């Protein structure tokens, strides 16, 4: 699959606004770096650029994909270095979701995005917030924590950066702490994942479980395509495990 066909067919609302500007610079860098003179392959996307005033929440897989690439590039640089394990994690995730060929195209784009300086986290996140539904934004935060944890530890700088992004994305503190708890080992994490206190009653625990199972159900992001079900299933599984852990501890 040629790059122009992939990028032109994948993107919807994301090819406009600040995100479109970032992608444009990245593609320009890729064209400049080409040594085979085949820059004509990149012209196919030009007529398909769209401004971000499309119908709200008309999010396609390519929009999520590009949003993830940009936010991941910011998180990876949050601690002042680019750890190879984090880069490998990004590529591995894309291979598992899209296959090797498309993952190679996405990773080429990612590396050129990561080279850019002064990317406005706020502007990018506000565009995503305006156009992307809540379950998809939760999925973004989950992926970003996975990338930060790829080297074995979510650093304070990385956590702070993801927290800032979550705020701009309109993610509540409860939802943020729920996803964050999935990547830390702590005796209270099962309760945080279910968004309840340790003092919650059995009925409150059961109600919270039903609520979170519904919120994180893989069907919530089915519009992003089958490729994203795996990540959604991971969140759903951790909700189930948190509930089972509390059941065991509380004996109900």
TrEMBL record:
Keyword Cell wall biogenesis/degradation recorded: no
Domain J, chain residue ranges per copy: 189-251
Annotated InterPro entries: DjlA_DnaK_co-chaperone, DjlA_N, DnaJ_domain, J_dom_sf, TerB-like
Entry keyword Transmembrane helix: yes
CDD domains listed in its UniProt record: DnaJ, terB_like_DjlA
Transmembrane segments annotated in the record for this chain: 6-27
UniProt keyword terms in alphabetical order: Membrane, Transmembrane, Transmembrane helix
Protein name: TerB family tellurite resistance protein
Organism from which the protein derives: Gaetbulibacter aestuarii
